[in-house]
Amino acid sequence: MVTQITKGIKISVRTEYEGSFFKARTIHFAFSYEITIENQSNHLVQLFSRHWKIQDALNDSTIVEGEGVLGEKPIIKPGEYHRYRSGCVLTCPYGAMKGFYRMLNLSTSKSFKVIIPSFKLASPFALN
């Protein structure tokens, strides 16, 4: 698990290899990740957007941006957390993801960036 704290918001990431499959004569490798967003600050915050950079071992990268996470814009009270699970597919057995969330401090109406630490995506056989 990797973690990082930005402005009192702790991001923890756990990953899992889900398997491989063929599509259009190309092998694909599926990964899931679980992210916990913990509000360790004294302020009520809301996540309103995300930015991901997904990179595989062949140096192909994809940028993914959008509102909220899984269609939600969670409000997180001080001392509480929001957890969700998502996934991605690569065309090689090893890669990484990193990014950031845009959050809104509901006490001050100011937005701020929370770093999502870089985490690896690796099938077990790719590590040997």
UniProtKB/TrEMBL annotation:
<feature type="domain" description="ApaG">
    <location>
        <begin position="3"/>
        <end position="128"/>
    </location>
</feature>
<dbReference type="InterPro" id="IPR050718">
    <property type="entry name" value="ApaG-like"/>
</dbReference>
<protein>
    <submittedName>
        <fullName>Uncharacterized protein affecting Mg2+/Co2+ transport</fullName>
    </submittedName>
</protein>
<dbReference type="InterPro" id="IPR007474">
    <property type="entry name" value="ApaG_domain"/>
</dbReference>
<dbReference type="InterPro" id="IPR036767">
    <property type="entry name" value="ApaG_sf"/>
</dbReference>
<dbReference type="Pfam" id="PF04379">
    <property type="entry name" value="DUF525"/>
</dbReference>
